[in-house]
Each structure stands twice: as C-alpha cells, then as structure tokens.
Amino acid sequence: MEEVISKVDALACLPCISRATKIVIPAPYGKALIEPATLPNGDTNPKAGALLTDKRGNIIGTAGVIFPNHTDNCWQAIATGARGIKLDASERIGPETVTAIQGWVTSKLGSPSFEQLTPKFLRELAQYMLTDLKIISSRPGSPPVILANLAAPSDWDAVRAWVAEHATSGDPNDLSLKQFEELIGFMDSTLLLDDLYDSDQDYVTKKLVCADIADVPLNRDGAVIPYFGLMQRNDNPAVDKYFAVRVDGPVQLFRPDHTAQIGDDGLVIVLMVDEKRGIEKLGKRWYCRGMQPDRFLRSYLDSNEHSIDSIDCVPLLG
Is 313 buried (19+), middle (13-18) or exposed (0-12) by CB count in 10 A? Predict the structure, then answer.
C-alpha cells in the first residue's frame, strides 16, 4: 500500500464521493482464525488447525469471525480483533482483583463459555471494573462492527428479521459468537452480500448516518439499537472527496497486515485522507483501498454527484 500511495498523485485522479448504502452490525470480538476440524459439509478438514487464509493463500488475521462458504465447501473469515478488556500498561492487577473479577463473571454467567463474552457483556464488565474495583483505565476499546457494502433495503429487512428470530431481545448485541457467524453466513450465501469487511464503532459515529431516519431499529423494549442499520456516509461533497485511479490487468494490493486485495481484471485504487490508518505524504496522511471496477461504479459518484458511466472515466495509474 505504501508503494501505491507514493506513486499516486491526487491531482491526476478522478475526484469522487461515496454513494453506497451498507448494513452495519455490532460484532462480537473474534476467536482465533484457525481452520475448524471439519468442513461445512461435515467432512474432515485436511487443513484443520492451520491459520485461515483467503483464496490466494494470504493470512486473513489473528482473530475474528468465521463463517461457512457452502458453495466451495470451505471456511471464510473476517478479522475483528480479539475479545477482552483493554488495560493501560500502568494498571496493576493483583490476585484479589482477579478473584473479584472471576467471581463477578461467575455470578452473571455461571460457568462461562468463550462464546458468552458478547460486546454487551464486556461493556458491563468494564463498567463493573470501573465503578466497583476503581480500575479507571479499563475499557473495551472501540468495539468492532461488520459492514456489508452495496446492500439494498430488502437486504436490511432480511438481516433485521434474522436477528429478531435468533435474539429474543431483537438486539444483535445479544447474539452469541456462533449465532453471529451463522448470521454472516446467511448474509454471504443467501443474500449474496459478499463485500463484507470489519471496522469499529468510532468509524460509524464519525462517518455514517442512517439511510432512512424513519427506519431506526428498536429492540423489544422500544430502545434504539446503536450501530445497527442500513447506513450511508455522511460526506460533505465539497470537503470529503476520494480520489480514484485504476490499474489494469491482474493486480494485488497488499494491506499493512499483509493481506491482499486481488483484481484479476484490474482494480480501482481509491485514495482518501485517513489520520488513523494513513501514510504521511505532503502534509497529510493518506490511505487507499482497492475495489473491483464494477463495485466502484456502483459505489461512487463523481465530484458533481453524477454517475460514473464507465471505468474508462477513471485515469490509469502512470
């Protein structure tokens, strides 16, 4: 990615803005991304115990959500990070505190399993550590979310109905990790929402708004469910521009975590300013992602908010 950013001149790119709607779902913190013992059809998995990789053999990540690909009879995964409570390096936890935390968890869950550590439970644990144990630096961080890009309102209706059926509260925060993996599998194989990726709640707060303000999801008690819904970017077209350039032919764009975005027929490289993930260049921190050409045309407008009719409108990377 750093090499691409060093070569791309924003002035030689096509300025564009995002128009795609996406489903946002609060995600449980993940488990280790290793191949399960069996394949989705129940057969023995010859790769059991190995790190999960994408179709090109690139390691996906260390922790996340695993879901079945029944078409290819294999496992896929999205990296979301490991579950737990973050502590500042200065925090000292003695045996009495550990015993207190274990007692609190046991009182809530009995003999807990790993899958019961939902984002909602971890937030309650962090609050207990803060108010009762005075561990002021405990926090769950910015919890992960999963985004399904290029989703239609009908897709959102199907996802909301699935959650309502499997979580008695109607709140995806109450899904177990196994249920969440089943939900992702449903979105991937049944709804064909295959452009799935991870982010966090900070990004949703800063960058996304509900696509329909009259369609805000509520739980069974009538409370708004945050970080859940059909959303779109809240970009200001005069300020929040992206810059697109294309690369023809087979290409791989490697991310900082060494996973790759693959384009057998080329990629559109979308450049953006990103203070969190970006690489310094000319006084700004730039980040880029690769997109399949057809997805780019469905996801972006030009800077005048007009459709981009052809991939030929996107300049070639020189």
Answer: middle
